[in-house]
DNA sequence: CCTTAAAAACGAATGCTGTTAGTTTTACTG
DNA sequence: CAGTAAAACTAACAGCATTCGTTTTTAAGG
């Protein structure tokens, strides 16, 4: 029984690969152990439990998703940045459906590791929204709106729930993002007017 | 072993109750059998498999959700109907989180029973959107937008993903629905103008 | 180079899980 | 009352996550 040179990072990485290949639903410690040429019990030297492992996978997926978002927005501002962010989000969810599924699958209530990543999820979005001239509170509300639209669309699309009608889904998504962009533009104008202390 | 008078409907109903109580994640055939005072294998006289059972639970949950939507919209049109629908949707997702979870959990690809319910989900939404003066294609796109917003918000809220900031979630939701309402209003106006064959 | 101790793999076992097959009991129909 | 179909049963299987105690391997210190 030669050592496999495993550590937590390698196990999480292998789990992510396996999930991406075979799907989150059929993931098991036994299957992962088989792939790593190790007995299932050996995995517990590197990981506290299956839930803990999936937590790590979710964190990894969040990292990649947010990086894709940041790269897409690089050098852009305003609506261009908004559309780039939204496109990157949907692209990731479609390119890595099972990994994206893992992100939303693990509840965030009281999991320290994921609680920390919450900031990573929010940050690129808040940076994009910063270009619309809203105050902090409004930005936080709109951040929720945008995340709702992006995840809601991705989830429905993945579940096959948008196949009832033949209309092009790309166009539906653009329409949704345009809708948010319009709302943001108007909110920004309004916020700017209200901010004037001495209107002409 | 006296007969329990079980049938598919009773089993599905009991499964829904159990899921609502203990959560979808911890649901099991053994647990359901225990509640029904029956051996696990006996359930297979009424249900093809656990997946088939969960499919039935999802169908049941869809029925209740759409009924809540219809009741909320009764007698309303336009934006009033839109807000009522959106409120009813979120209310149901919060009042029956585990049942709502079951709806989105089962993939819809090639499941006849749920494919049939897809129409039930879409219908009340399309009726509400009918009041905005869009053509059929636009209505189908906006239906996807609205469903994305509603589910995306419900899913994030349920996962605890909107707790990062203290801002009131009710207000975020109203903002999101207002955003869709504004988009719909403008799309309706535009559609009406385009429809004129002889503009003044 | 040898010793020591920690880390990592292991085998075995526990109590779950969904599901199938074959058998027995129940309830209805002629 | 006899026969039949449905519904319950028992037993079994393979797989699951996880824990315990043991054995092996590696790395560090003297």
Question: Please, what is the oligomeric state?
Answer: homodimer
Total count of domains of chain A: 2
Label the CATH architecture of the largest domain in chain A: Orthogonal Bundle
Greatest chain-chain contact = A-B, 43 and 43 residues
Please give the number of β-strands of chain A.
Answer: 0
Report the CATH topology name of the largest domain in chain A. Tetracycline Repressor, domain 2
Secondary-structure-based class of chain A equals: mainly alpha
Main sheet specs of chain A: none
**N-to-C terminal Cα separation of chain A, in Å?**
82 Å
Uncertain segments of chain A? 196-200
Output mean pLDDT of chain A.
93
Q: Quick one: CATH class of the largest domain in chain A?
A: Mainly Alpha
Question: Radius of gyration of chain A in whole Å, from Cα?
Answer: 20 Å
**Helical amount of chain A:** over 70%
Tally of alpha and pi helices of chain A: 8
